[in-house]
Design goal:
alpha/beta, globular, binds NADP nicotinamide-adenine-dinucleotide phosphate
Length: 230
């Protein structure tokens, strides 16, 4: 297993939900963390935590966050793409505004960050990318086609990153939860007590970051209810 000490992890969507739980888990484990946020929401910098503005819809903010992280810590060893939205878009919708926003935040955001950090991940020889996709990236279970389309694309992006980085020790995983008890699911028709918890996803992220180059999880599917996927 890889030791956390001194490894630098960038986490997007870091102020809330799965991203926030991941930041807290990784700090407790001894990683150095660069948190990308639109609003800090009480996330305060420390010696091992930097907090910088990141908006997935702005290429300039992605560039500034990556260069700010390298300036502060001198390296990037891992990227966790947790920022995401689940705006509604049905296949019958003529207005494509919601689809465009899903594409920008859920797909182009992780793609751009991955592209920008890849040289740094390559340099360390044990680089890691964890893309928080979804079971909606494995099957279409409801009318929100736009979200599923974006998450299938994140799974494809993850496979593309595995190809691009493999020879240089970069390993990429698509983490695919079902319902997780965060703000994103407050109006879901499913009991909150039965949803997966953000802290459980954070524990999985830590495990993925610690596995060696020779034990790679391509996709991690996480169920909170009985369903057959894949
Ligand atoms: N909750 C679930 O059931 C579930 C299941 C499967 C997959 N996921 C995925 O898990 C990831 C995290 O979701 P969550 O459940 O933690 O949801 P959440 O609590 O709603 O958090 C979403 C995060 O994404 C950030 N974000 C939204 N738009 C952004 C933008 N344009 N630029 C940068 N950051 C942006 C938010 O930042 P602000 O605080 O600034 O809004 C927030 O930190 C998402 O990719 C989601 O699709 C969630």
């Amino acid at each position: 297993m890889l030791e956390p000490a001194d490894r630098v992890v960038m986490v997007s969507g870091a102020a809330r939900g799965i991203g926030r739980a991941t930041v807290e888990r990784l700090l407790a484990a001894g990683f150095r963390v660069s948190a990308g946020v639109r609003e800090a929401r009480g996330l305060a910098p420390t010696e091992r935590l930097m907090v910088q503005r990141y908006d997935a819809e702005s290429l300039a903010s992605a560039e500034a966050w990556v260069s700010g992280t390298v300036a502060r810590f001198g390296a990037v060893d891992a990227l966790v793409n947790a920022a995401g939205i689940n705006t509604r878009f049905a296949v019958t919708d003529a207005d494509e505004t919601a689809l465009d926003q899903l594409w920008a935040v859920n797909v182009k955001g992780p793609l751009r960050l991955s592209r920008l950090v890849l040289p740094h991940l390559t340099a360390c020889g044990v680089g890691r990318i964890v893309n928080v996709a979804s079971l909606s990236g494995k099957r279409v279970a409801n009318a929100n086609a736009g979200y599923a389309i974006s998450k299938f694309a994140v799974v494809a992006l993850t496979q593309a990153l595995r190809r691009a980085g493999w020879d240089d020790g970069v390993r990429a995983t698509a983490l695919c939860p079902g319902f997780v008890e965060t703000d994103m699911t407050v109006s879901a028709q499913f009991p909150r007590a039965e949803m997966s918890k953000p802290g459980d996803l954070a524990a999985m992220v830590e495990m993925l970051l610690r596995l060696p180059n020779t034990a790679v999880v391509a996709e991690l599917l996480v169920n909170c209810r009985l369903e057959m996927v894949g």
